[in-house]
Amino acid sequence: MSDEFAIEARGLSKHFGTLRAVDRLDLKVPKGQIYGFLGPNGSGKSTTIRMLCGLLLPTEGSATVLDTDIPGDSRALKPRIGYMTQKFSLFGDLTVFENLQFIAEIYSFPKQDRGSRIEALLQQYDLVQQRDQLAATLSGGQKQRLALACAVLHRPELLLLDEPTSAVDPQSRRDFWANLFQLAEAGTTILVSTHYMDEAERCHRLAILDRGVKVADGTPDELQKNTGMHIVEVLADDPYRAHAALSNIPDIASVTQLGIRLRALIPTTVDDPLRLVDRALRSLDVQAHAQLTPATLEDVFVAVTMTPRERAA
Amino acid sequence: MKSLSRLLAIVRKETRQLRRDRLTFGMIVGLPIIQVLLFGYAINTDVRNLKTAVANQANTHLSRQFVAALEQTQVVDIIATVESAEQLEDLLRAGDISLGVVIPHDFDRRVADASRAAVHLLVDGSDPTILSVATQLRSMPIAFDVQSRTVREKMVVGGPLGPIEIRPYYNPERRTPVNIVPGLMGIILTMTMTLFTAVAIVRERERGNLELLINTPVTSAELMIGKVIPYILIGLLQVALIIGIGRLLFDVPIRGSIVDLYLAATAFIAANLALGLFISTAAKTQFQAMQVMIFYLLPSILLSGFMFPFDGMPKVAQYLGELLPNTHFIRLTRGIMLRDATLMELYPELLFLIGFALIAMTTAAMRFSKRLD
């Protein structure tokens, strides 16, 4: 195992009956970075994270997580990782303080430092006011902060976060990411799954999963540059008709409407994408302005999750 | 060292959660009180005041004395006097009476003749308890049947005196609560203890806490033992409650050592908690856990010797009964509380409970894998 990577997965697969929840996944997560898993529901993000922390046994393949082999005895791994589930998994009938205290005890956090560590976390995650409140009565954002505080209390080297922001408001999401950057700066490796594009964009690296298969990975920049697609943005008076005009052209792989704008993805094998679009629009007499534009992560996502037939256009 | 601190963390967490769970807390205290009162007052196997009708066809001095003696027993309550056996049958069928007494014309002569029954009892056998009570009444007519003429006079004057004398030991007044309460302790503990732990793991799974727990360094054994310890104390509290009420309201004695009783109870509580944990590792939902638990509770009531005398049960039922912790616990409590037996004398029963607890606990810890699949 190199010192470079916190996680290395080789051909990791998990089958539930005939369903291939995760299919031959290769993965390299560098230490000290925030690594994103981007994918829709059911793409295998949670299953992969659960295999990496030893909760699920891989059907095939293997992984090395912080020098520990998966599958194998993951006991030595437990104190070194922090895990946060989608549902936050807090004890609703314990107070905020008692939740943290229980985690401190269960991880055998040094007794003399326990009190100060918990106080520091309450400060850091803005939970001082809620200290003696039952966890079940917290708001979504507070629950999320408490769950993160619980996950990092024992200062894990690796943090596995399974869709931590799917149940909270945008402000809480921003604050949450600020906390993640702080943790990464302090040297924690973070693997975080999400289905939000804006969150994926903040990761150092990310992998896009689709139906259990990794369809792309790299830095957000790399991914945006290597879509293999021209992106044409169309501003039309009648976006509905423009959509109709474009969606019948076989060379156009995908058309997505965003308000009055349309984004058309056209394979780079097409030489003059603008002319193609103009011709298509004129054929239906649609007044519109088309221009080439750089790819966003959303475009990347649309491009890489296409079926091969769509991609060939 | 770390292991002990993790164990204590679980114990502390469980205790805190328990303290905030008012329903469960109410059940811990309320269930024993209600059950003991219910069983102590309502369930009474000494039947009295059975509705009875008499057809006294003899109507002699002797037969009238017999009817008076019958009434004196208080077992029967004579609500009607009719002419014929047919009328008695009608009343029985209508459910107006449970017992019909037919005194034939030649009653006086029959009494003197050992080969003929002097009185006929018509019994509503659809309730076995009534039938058995009526059978007890036979000590009267039997006396008339088998005794010689010389004894007869004395009998009739001195009231019913059967040829077989019964002397009940340990519960001479034949009060039901004295017998019920020690057995009821087993039923109440089976009900509450098994239920608490049967839902323990499943509940954590349903709330999503389990996913967090199994990602911590806590081991299966620590988790299992940590969950059991607070409930052992609660079980002992229930024992104290049951003994207290039994004593206060029903005068149930503790003739043996109270320490022996508590030791036996501890083993029994541990056995039930461990079984509950085992159920919890097998069940997928809390509802499933409850179903399995009821499946276990019924035989614990019916086959343990609580409801029916153990020796009177069919062999197969006895074998099944021997597998139930409650059977052994009821022998222990009745022995210690009523017969002044010591734990040493009853050690096979205690050994069974300890063995049962150990096996169930180990199986539960082994079955509980720290994985989700």
Core attributes:
heterodimer; A: 313 residues; alpha/beta; Rossmann fold; Alpha-Beta Plaits; 2 domains; 6-stranded mixed sheet; 4-stranded antiparallel sheet; 14 strands; 34% helix; 28% strand; B: 373 residues; mainly alpha; abc type-2 transporter like fold; 4-stranded mixed sheet; 6% strand
Strand order in the largest sheet of chain A: 6-7-8-3-9-10
CATH homolog superfamily of the largest domain in chain A: P-loop containing nucleotide triphosphate hydrolases
Biggest protein-protein contact in the assembly: A-B, 29 and 27 residues
Oligomer: heterodimer
* End-to-end Cα distance of chain A: 42 Å
Description:
The complex is a heterodimer of chains A (313) and B (373). Chain A has helices at residues 45-52, 96-106, 111-124, 140-152, 170-185, 197-202, 220-225, 239-247, 273-283, 297-304, 308-312; strands at 5-16, 19-30, 34-38, 60-65, 68-70, 81-84, 158-161, 189-194, 205-210, 213-218, 229-236, 254-258, 261-267, 288-292. By secondary structure, chain A is an alpha/beta fold. Chain A has two domains: 5-219, 3-Layer(aba) Sandwich (Rossmann fold); 227-312, YebC, transcriptional regulation domain (Alpha-Beta Plaits, 2-Layer Sandwich), CATH 3.30.70. In chain A, strand 9 (205-210) and strand 10 form a beta hairpin. Chain B is mainly alpha-helical and 373 residues long. Chain B has helices at residues 2-20, 22-42, 61-72, 85-94, 107-112, 128-137, 139-146, 149-158, 176-198, 200-207, 209-213, 220-250, 258-282, 286-302, 315-322, 325-339, 347-367; strands spanning 50-56, 76-81, 99-103, 120-123. In chain B, helix 3 (61-72) links the parallel strand 1 (50-56) and strand 2 (76-81). The longest helix of chain B has 31 residues, at 220-250. Residues 141-166 of chain B have low confidence and may be disordered. Classes of the chains: A alpha/beta (313), B mainly alpha (373). Chains A and B meet through helix 2 of A and helix 1 and helix 11 of B.
